[in-house]
Amino acid sequence: MNDAILKINNLEISFYTHVGEVRAVRDVSFSVKKGEILGIVGESGSGKSTVLLGIMGLLQHPGKIKAGEIIFEGENLAVKSNKEMQHIRGKKISMIFQDPMSSLNPVFTVGNQIAETIMTHEHVSRKDANKRVLELLELVRIPSAKSRINCYPHEFSGGMRQRAMIALALACSPQMLLADEPTTALDVTIQAQMMDLLRDIRKELDTTIILVTHDLGVVSEMCDYVQVMYGGRLMEEAVCRDIFDAPGHPYTKGLLRSIPNVKKGSRERLKPIEGSPPDLITPFDGCPFAFRCPSTMNLCMEGASQEWEIGEKHRCACHLCNPQVQALLKEGGIE
Amino acid sequence: MAKYILKRCVSIIVTLFLVCTITFIMMKAVPGGPFTTEKNLPPNVLEALEEKYHLNDPLLKQYVDYVKGTATFDFGPSFKKDGVMVSDMIAQSFPVSAKLGGVALVIVLLLGIPFGILAALKQNKMPDYLATIFATLGIAIPTFVLGTLILYVFGAKLGWIPTHGLDSWQCFIGPSISLAGFSLAYVLRLTRSSMLSVTGQDYIRTARAKGLPERKVIFKHALKNALIPVVTYVGPMTAGIMTGSCVTEKIFAIPGMGLF
User: Fold this and answer.
1) Nearest chain B residue to A153, by CA
2) Does A92 touch chain B (CB under 8 A)?
3) Domain region containing A285
4) How far is CA B181 from CA A172, B98, B141, B185, in A?
5) Taking 60 as the threshold, does the pLDDT of residue A2 lie above it?
6) What is the largest CA-CA distance in chain B?
7) Is A89 in contact with B214 (Cβ distance < 8 A)?
8) Which end of chain A is more exposed for a tag (fewer CB within 10 A), N or C?
9) Is residue A68 in some structural domain?
10) CA–CA separation, B17 and B36 (whole Å)
11) Looking at the predicted structure, is the pLDDT value of residue B35 above 80?
12) Which of B21, B38, B72 lies at the terminal end of a domain, its last residue?
């Protein structure tokens, strides 16, 4: 795995609130290869956005990286100071946020905000920076980019703002782009355009992308590799096709079952996952999905499962994937 | 931009005209007049006075004269001081009030905004608590109490500052602080709360994600947004401070506009 651009080892992120420690990310390890699009899926509060903010070093107080390593280009970002991170943020790793409506500063022009990023990281003149801004706006296909440079964000539509955000993120040609639900706030046609754009960018600039979303449709279309997160833990990870064709974890199976079927004449009811996500403030070492899982065993309450290899590049953190447990289940010696 | 400014200027004229008209109608609608006192004046004296000040002209003529006069900054003779024109009184006292107000304004802006920012950045820490205590006191203590206290303690008891007039720079200390007090506290609180709400915005996170140094995030991206409500307040506040305060000028015996 020498070509891994980012490697995360046993990452733990907690929020130290006045009512106790909220363990938002627990023992998460994964790696991303250069030029790959990795999808992280999970419902709200599963810790997926927190992982991204952790990588960026943008965790807000009272959030903290408690343990673990974030190795990017051989350096551990988890121990870097805010000042050191400033040279990485926006230059080597960029991030696109969920809501383009509020993510651009309303009192500066779009061109100004993008040029600022360039001038922060590279010693270029205002004129050269502006030339780059124009190229970037054309790259993200903003129509008549030249006249749009001096527009304020409120003069842009939602889709155009998200394009501008992507242009902003690409300003210094970062190696890695973290996209935190980039399409959630946009309508469906714009969503598809955004996804096309991200795909083209990956093709043209060979940028590694981590895409956080709860839209499985987006994942199936975009990603090379998928991770499923739940309750702060990684549940399953696999090549994109395998997640959809051969899900191993009961949670993944539940997620896939809850996709509405829009085939003509289908009158099937949607099958939701019963229950609600776990409260991460209560200390619990078992599998976070145990309370909602249709095949919970006593084992699940005692401790979360390690990750088991269930196929090529397909790992799943469920006791059901443990060969020993499988053998016991066959004999009926387990509840 | 030029079009916008022009539009605003036109609306100023319209507003001023409406204000004049409404003031005129209200003054005429109220019973009594400038010469109504506890002791009734003899009818012939009253008539002579009204004749002198054109108060027995037809209402419409009075109104037209008034608007015409106001438009040319001719406010007519004073009802209070015999033989003195109102515009002369303003010409004499306004510079005094404006000078004092200017000093007070500088105090408000130079202390209110920076300490407001400081309080927001150190939220729930010592500087924030101190600033909040100070701001609450500033808003709670009325000007006449603050002015009197300053005058009594620093002027009369300690003798550090002069008690009246505006002849030297030391004279400005007492009145400008008491004039600034309330606005300073208000601007501080406004800056703090506005700064706090802005620093939680998504675009501040974007600014950090761009790799900007913290200094730029705060003083460029956050401050420019946070100052919007402050500027909105400072506009009318400036007018209020510059045109003189009756209370402060009375306490420190300053010949400004507030005395009339």
Assistant:
1) B203
2) no
3) 252-335
4) 48, 17, 9, 6
5) no
6) 83
7) no
8) N
9) no
10) 28
11) no
12) B72
Quick check: A136 contacting B, CB < 8 Å? Answer: no
Mutate to test the interface with A, among B210, B216, B228 (most CBs of A within 10 A): B210
Residue B8's domain spans which residues?
2-72
A233 pLDDT higher than 50 = yes
CB of A88 within 8 Å of any CB in chain B? yes
Q: What is the pLDDT of residue A270?
A: 79
Return the pLDDT at B3.
93
Residue A238: partners with Cβ closer than 8 Å, 6 or more residues away: A225, A226, A246, A248, A311, A313, A314, A315, A316
Contact across the interface for B205 and A103, Cβ inside 8 Å: yes
Contact A56 B209 (CB under 8 A): yes
Mean predicted confidence (pLDDT) in A40-48 = 87
**A89·B211 Cβ contact <8 A:** yes
**Residue B212, Ramachandran bin (φ over 0: left; ψ between -120 and 50: alpha; else beta):** beta
Average pLDDT over residues B235-240: 91
Q: What pLDDT does B225 receive?
A: 95
Query: Taking CB atoms and an 8 Å cutoff, what residues of chain B touch A82?
Result: 214
Instruction: Please state, for a pLDDT cut of 70, what percent of chain A lies above it.
Output: 98
pLDDT digits (tens, 9 = 90+) for A281-292: 887 888 888 888
B chain contacts of residue A116, beta-carbon cutoff 8 Å: 210, 212
- Is residue B66 domain-shared with residue B36, that is, in the same domain? yes
Interface test mutation site (partner A, options B125, B204, B206, max chain A beta carbons within 10 A) = B206
What is residue A1's predicted lDDT score, i.e. its pLDDT?
45
The answer as to whether A160 is a domain residue is no
What are φ and ψ of residue B35, in 5° steps? -110, 10
The interface predicted TM-score (ipTM) is: 0.85
A90 assigned to some structural domain: no
